[in-house]
Amino acid sequence: MIGPALFSSATAEWETPWEFFKKLDAEFGFTLDVCARPENAKCARYFSPEEDGMRQSWAPEVCWMNPPYGREIGKWVRKAFLEAQKGTVVVCLLPARTDTNWWHDCVMRAAEIRFVRGRLKFGGAANGAPFPSTVVVFRQGEWTPKVKSMGA
Question: What is this structure's pTM?
Answer without folding.
Answer: 0.88
